Amino acid sequence: MIKETSRGMAVQILTRVEVEGAYANLLMQKTIARLSDARERQFVTLLVNGVLKHRLTLDYALRLHLSKPMSALPHEVRAILRIGAFQVLFVDKVPPAVAVNESVELAKSFPKFTGLVNVVLRKVLTKGWDIPWPDLKRDTVRYLSVRYSHPEWMIQRWLKRWGKDETEALCQTNNEPAPTWIRTNTLKISRQDLADLLIRDGITVELGERVPESIRIQNFGSLEKLEAFKAGLFTVQDESSQIIAHVVAPEAGQHVLDACSAPGGKTTHLAQMMNNEGVILAFDVHAHKLELIDQLAQRLGITCIETQLGDARDLPGIRLDSQQRVLVDAPCSGLGVLRRRADLRWRKAEQDLWDLPILQFAILERAASCVEVGGDLIYSTCTIEPEENFELVKKFRSAHPEFEAVNLADALPFELKDTRDIQQAAKGMLQLLPQRHGTDGFFLAKFHRRS
Ligand SMILES: C[S@@+](CC[C@H](N)C(=O)[O-])C[C@H]1O[C@@H](n2cnc3c(N)ncnc32)[C@H](O)[C@@H]1O
């Protein structure tokens, strides 16, 4: 049995993720709840997310000192080696010798492998980053894949689209820790007043430049414990996601449909913009996720949302031409948020980029049929792949001439600077890219139904 220390817990979580395919985030939340010390909880999170993200690089570095493949070792021993190598190579605040000794301690639960863990990690420590990488020029895909721990199929796509330098920059950004953004609940407080409250709680704040409600926060413990959180003064939402409600631009009293709404980040933002007046029909295909919307709305003091269980390809009970605004925040591959979701890169396959656009297109078409004449349709995803974004929108536009593109320069809450973005925006579309914009990868498009 592995000890219940913070490193031991990280080994348990990583083992279950690998063996059972468990979702790292959910499992981690449950497991670290057993720890009373916030710093220990943070350390487990750092180890688990770090190993998940950098797994390919770590295995490459470890394999140099192993006579057999990692797959020949018990799962727990693999996790111990990866955690040890991660601390040695990536974590400055842990002295490398401590990282190795603690890993050897853990490996004592697997006596046959204690010596191996000791020898291999000491070699990793001695070599450091002096690693013989694949040749960058001759084998660019493999180099970028093992150097930045991304699947080769992703690298191949991005290289074709953007070339080596930009692909490398994207991979680097994906490996950085994601910033935490919150959205002010403007039904209850102004952004400045909220920022002042948070500063009094010792939190570092920075007002966002793209969205008038956004605040970037640092140096916080458990957000749920803050009075401002309990009072519903804010919710956690990336700044790029906060752009969407501004582009939808609903007005108080309107009928709005949110076709894929859970867990309710954008739905509740729409409600704020409508001053909680009107009706938002919030659909989702998963009942348990609809409960999250209800809980969030309750905490934020929002009452104009009606959650409805249903497939957005059917939208049962919704009349044609009945909605003034329709949002399709589609289920997608999520390739724009790899820095935020540590294990996502290993959960996706290129096949998803064939299957998802079929679902996305069917949802978009049905949702479009609900837009009233003179109303607006907004499509968004958190991916950077053209099949789910530009190509899908192009197909939709040619099938639906009753919709015209809305120039996003007039709809966005911030000014575009890059000429490429300005040109795209004039055609009603915008692709935010982590490596260019420093945001999550996000796509949005807006169409107006002609009268
Ligand atoms: C990108 S997420 C939506 C995020 C949400 N708009 C927010 O801001 O919090 C996509 C959602 O679509 C839902 N979904 C997937 N397939 C669906 C379908 N066929 N019909 C309706 N919802 C679906 C998923 O359950 C997921 O909650």
TrEMBL record:
InterPro entries according to UniProt: MeTrfase_RsmB-F_NOP2_cat (IPR049560), MeTrfase_RsmB-F_NOP2_dom (IPR001678), NusB-like_sf (IPR035926), NusB_RsmB_TIM44 (IPR006027), RCMT (IPR023267), rRNA_ssu_MeTfrase_B (IPR004573), RsmB-like_ferredoxin (IPR054728), SAM-dependent_MTases_sf (IPR029063)
Parts of the chain that traverse the membrane: none
The enzyme's E.C. designation: 2.1.1.176
Pfam families: Methyltr_RsmB-F, NusB, RsmF-B_ferredox
Catalytic activity, reaction form: cytidine(967) in 16S rRNA + S-adenosyl-L-methionine = 5-methylcytidine(967) in 16S rRNA + S-adenosyl-L-homocysteine + H(+)
GO biological process, one term: regulation of DNA-templated transcription
Subcellular location: Cytoplasm
Keyword S-adenosyl-L-methionine: yes
Keyword annotations of the record: Cytoplasm, Methyltransferase, RNA-binding, rRNA processing, S-adenosyl-L-methionine, Transferase
Active-site residue numbers: 382 (nucleophile)
Main location: cytoplasm
Domain named SAM-dependent MTase RsmB/NOP-type: residues: 170-450
Coiled coil region boundaries: none
Residues the record lists as binding S-adenosyl-L-methionine: 260-266, 284, 311, 329
GO molecular function: RNA binding; rRNA methyltransferase activity
One Gene Ontology cellular component: cytoplasm
Matching CDD domains: AdoMet_MTases
Entry function: Specifically methylates the cytosine at position 967 (m5C967) of 16S rRNA.
Recorded family membership: Belongs to the class I-like SAM-binding methyltransferase superfamily. RsmB/NOP family.
Protein name: 16S rRNA (cytosine(967)-C(5))-methyltransferase
The species this protein was found in: Desulfosporosinus acididurans
Classification of source organism: Bacteria, Bacillati, Bacillota, Clostridia, Eubacteriales
